[in-house]
Amino acid sequence: MPRKRNALGALLEKFSYQATRATGTSAAFIVAAGVIVVWAITGPIFGFSDTWQLVINTGTTIVTFLMVFLIQRTQNKDALAIHLKLNEIVAAMEGASNRLIDVEDLTEPEIEALRKYYKRLIDLAREDDVLTSTHSIEEAATRHGTKYKKPPKGSKSSNGKLKDVRS
Q1: Splitting the chain (167 residues) into consecutive groups of 10 residues, what average pLDDT does each group show?
Q2: Alpha carbon of 127 to those of 53, 65, 142: distances in Å?
């Protein structure tokens, strides 16, 4: 039985992909607009009857109902792919926090706590006027407190002692 499910899943995925590609084109929009124009033109022919209105209402309801599921499937797949790509970047970057891998699985309060965490990092970075100078709050706090006390490169005088670079 699982083989039929996999085959069915593959068929649905292929159909979903093709339908999403087809419905996201200018031609699909023109066809949809054309249907509405034809429906509007036929209004006087059918005396703007309840049946005439029911045809467009039923048609658009069915298309909308099916498109909701099609769009959701496509968004789920795209979101998963984006999450995987971002996880790979986070995992590969030296200095990046691995706490962010699978952050999408956290609860809303946990995500809000992380948002506050990064807001604090942003505030520290703004104080430094260099947004790319730190990677974590711990590192930002350490750098923020010590980097102005360290002499810049090349600040030693010819006798090897530190010179005042503020002047």
Answers
A1: 70 88 93 96 95 95 94 90 89 81 87 89 74 61 59 48 42
A2: 62, 51, 13
* DSSP-assigned beta bridge partners for residue 162: 156
User: In Å, how far are 63, 64, 116, 150 from 60, measured between CA atoms?
Assistant: 5, 6, 43, 68
Torsion, Cα of 48, 51, 53, 57 (10° steps): -170
CA distance between the termini of the chain: 80
Half-sphere exposure of 77 (CA within 13 A, CB side): 11
pTM above 0.70, yes or no: no
Q: What six digits make up the tokens of 36?
A: 């509405």
Residue closest to 18 by CA, chosen among 73, 56, 60 = 73
Cβ pair 36, 53 in contact under 8 A: no
Q: How many CB atoms within 10 Å of residue 117?
A: 14
